[in-house]
Write a structure and sequence with these properties.
alpha/beta; Arc Repressor Mutant, subunit A; D-Maltodextrin-Binding Protein, domain 2; 3 domains
């Protein structure tokens, strides 16, 4: 089979598998069965005469040949999509930057940066999406994103082991904070002592996978009492406001806390630092990407944690 016989469908399926990280996730995103996805991947690998995806228990990873195909497939898919837009009479997407971010960055930082860009660069088009850090890294590698805001926790390892390493810029490094109901006894002071976290009820992340205990204070020396699980940050904070428990929050979210929630630092133990990273592939960035990166950096520096609100009377 000649590679010139590869269909656009096969390229799209391959692109989705590489970006989503698993055949199952790609099938769900495309509306295909998993067997249909497997057939398309088998066909494109036969045409390439090489294994393009390394199958692992936790998912797939691009091989060296796969990275070549992915780079070219991204160009082809983008050109086909641009042609479709032009034939439909839609405007050109010149000056477009594809930006990804992890959930809490979308609550404060991204809207601030985009609002600034609308004033300074009204012709610049940002196509954005939210995702977990692993998903965003895969999308960068797949060429589906130009820039991605990533979260990093100690020991601050690289976001993946692929080569060449991603170009990373640290925008901020701040201590993790605690969201406490305003009526809770811990809300009376200007900080929470880590010893007082024992015996508390927690609002954690999703009930399975790597995010299961997000929301529980790291290093808690007891089995946490998890009252509720919620993936969405707004839902977590509203549950805190309702007095249902405590949850951890990045310092960046302090200004987005709803009424009835105090966001406080934690003292008495190791500082739980979190970095906000801006990542891209290690090639010279385009001018639009530079402008977006500059706006994100300015928004991050401007989003200093406000002083804790006055304790309830």
């Amino acid at each position: 089979m000649d590679f010139s016989d590869v269909s656009l469908t096969a390229l799209r399926v391959f692109h989705a598998v590489a970006e989503q990280g698993t055949f199952t996730a790609a099938a769900a995103s495309l509306g295909y069965t998993q067997s249909a996805v497997s057939r398309q991947i088998a066909a494109i690998e036969r045409a390439a005469g090489a294994e393009l995806l390394e199958r692992r228990r936790e998912g797939v990873r691009l091989t060296a040949a796969g990275r070549v195909v992915m780079r070219r497939a991204t160009v082809v898919i983008d050109e086909i999509d641009a042609t479709a837009r032009e034939l439909s009479g839609l405007p050109e997407q010149s000056g477009t930057v594809r930006l990804g971010w992890f959930p809490s960055a979308g609550a404060v930082l991204v809207p601030r940066a985009l609002a600034g860009l609308r004033r300074t660069d009204p012709g610049l088009r940002i196509v954005g999406r939210e995702g977990s850090t692993p998903a965003l890294v895969r999308a960068l590698r797949a060429g589906s994103l130009d820039l991605a805001l990533l979260a990093s926790a100690p020991p601050f390892r690289p976001p993946d082991a692929e080569s060449p390493p991603l170009a990373l810029q640290t925008l901020t490094e701040r201590a993790l904070c605690l969201a406490v109901p305003a009526t809770h006894p811990l809300a009376r002071g200007d900080f929470v002592d880590v010893a007082d976290l024992r015996g508390q009820r927690w609002i954690a992340g999703s009930s399975s996978g790597e995010d299961r205990l997000m929301g529980v204070w790291p290093g808690l020396d007891e089995r946490p009492d998890i009252a509720h699980t919620a993936r969405d940050w707004l839902a977590k904070l509203q549950l805190v406001a309702a007095g249902c428990g405590l949850t951890t929050v990045p310092a960046l979210l302090a200004s987005a806390a709803p009424s009835g929630v105090r966001v406080l630092p934690v003292r008495g133990g190791p500082q739980e630092q979190r970095r906000l990273l801006l990542a891209r592939l290690p090639h010279p960035p385009t001018d639009p990407s530079i402008r977006v990166a500059t706006a994100l950096r300015a928004a991050a520096l401007d989003a200093d944690t406000p002083a804790p609100s006055s304790p309830p009377t």
